[in-house]
Amino acid sequence: MLYAFELSGEHAVLPVKEVYACLSMEDLEYREHSHLDHCLVVDIEGESVDEKLASVAGRLAMSHHILKIVGICDLIDESIIEMCERSDISGHLSRGQTYVVRARRVKHYGDINRESIEGRLGGSIFRKGFRANLNDPDVTFRLIMSNKAVFGSIVASVERSEYEHRAPHKKPFFYPGVLMPRIARTLVNISRIRSDEVLFDPFSGTAGILVEGGLVGAHVVGIEVRQMISNGARMNLDEYDADYSLLVGDACRVPLKGCCVDAIVTDPPYGRSAAIKAESLGHLYSDSFAEMYRVLKPGKLAVVVSEIKVEVFAEKAGFSIVDIFTQKVHRSLTRTFTVLCKD
Ligand SMILES: C[S@@+](CC[C@H](N)C(=O)[O-])C[C@H]1O[C@@H](n2cnc3c(N)ncnc32)[C@H](O)[C@@H]1O
Q1: Ligand 1 atom at shortest distance from the alpha carbon of 229
Q2: Does the pLDDT of residue 274 top 70, yes or no?
Q3: How far apart are CA 236 and CA 192, in angstroms?
């Protein structure tokens, strides 16, 4: 069965990687069908797919909606109506249920009038014997007008506004240099941490990453060198009822036994504004990567945010490099996200 993930487009690759990580964590079998602009179409097999996709939506940060696809065609109004006319929509809408159709244009694709196509698709579904309800429908059909037209019913939506509510300055404790919650959640997802597993951040700061890990049900463990910041992290973690352990200490000498954490997501100091407690940034990175490698379970992932390339430190510690992404934050700051595996 084909499903579409309506991607946020805030990064070229991270939204796609996040979707695949979340599908794997639900043990769903999937295969990429096509990757359109802001829309990823995936063939997903298995039991209770719609229910599992509801959990996936609860974790995702960089998608808007998940659609069960009715059809995909060229972005031409007559082709879209014809596709809807010949489609069996019984798998999307039960007898007696009401519906609405909403359309969204991605960037500048096509010149189809949004309201007109919503009305025409609504008419097509009406002729199949269903009743529309624009205010409180049971099922919302969505047309994504990208480099193709993708039409389907929404099976789950991502509560993107929740991430805005958790913006760093809205938390009980704020200190500059924090990742935005959507990025932090995406990295937590890419680390493939599951609920009830242990997620570790050796440079936990105000706990921006750990809050997102706690919200997906992980037990989160953080180390922060500055007592004042660690006190603030505690306030933030309490605010979101996280199951956590915080230590004031040094990421280069981690007081944990070997192979005890299931994933690491961390944002070490870049040597700009955040204070470092080490001889130099080089020492901090080589010693902390060695500690990350030691405490991580074999076969598990670490995701590290940095301004400099960290492959040399990571490989010296024993990690293999899985993926590297970059994100331009502003003119003088490009972040690198490096995904590492302890083989
Ligand atoms: C970029 S900030 C992390 C921000 C964090 N993700 C947050 O949500 O606030 C890096 C943090 O590492 C801390 N730090 C610096 N050197 C450290 C060390 N040797 N061990 C542990 N923490 C350290 C800094 O005090 C700072 O809070």
Answers
A1: 27
A2: no
A3: 23
Report the chain's terminal Cα–Cα distance, integer Å: 34
pLDDT for 279: 75
Model confidence, pTM: 0.96
Residue type, 202: P
Confidence bin at 273 (pLDDT 50/70/90) = low
Question: Residue type for 315, please?
Answer: E
Residues 145 and 173 in one domain: no
Last residue of a domain, one of 125, 158, 191: 158
> Minimal CA–CA distance to 150: which of 90, 205, 105, 119?
105
Give the residue whose CA is nearest to atom 13 of ligand 1.
203
Distance CA 246, CA 204 (A): 9
| Containing structural domain, residue 321 | 163-341
Closest protein CA for atom 15 of ligand 1:
276
The pLDDT value given to residue 271: 76
Q: Which residues line ligand 1 (CB under 6 A)?
A: 177-179, 203, 205-209, 223-226, 229, 250-252, 267-269, 274-278, 284
State the average pLDDT over residues 175-204: 97
Q: How far is the CA of 270 from the centre of ligand 1 (A)?
A: 9
Average pLDDT over residues 206-213: 98
The Cα–Cα gap between 202 and 251 comes to 5
Contact 292, 195 (CB under 8 A): no
Task: Tell me the residue type at 253.
Answer: R
Amino acid at 199: L
- Centre of ligand 1 to C-alpha 223, Å, is 8
Residue-by-residue DSSP string for 40-80: EEEEEESTTHHHHHHHHHHH-SSEEEEEEEEEEE-S-HHHH
Domain end residue (candidates: 113, 129, 158)? 158
Instruction: Clarify whether residues 102 and 217 are in a common domain.
Output: no
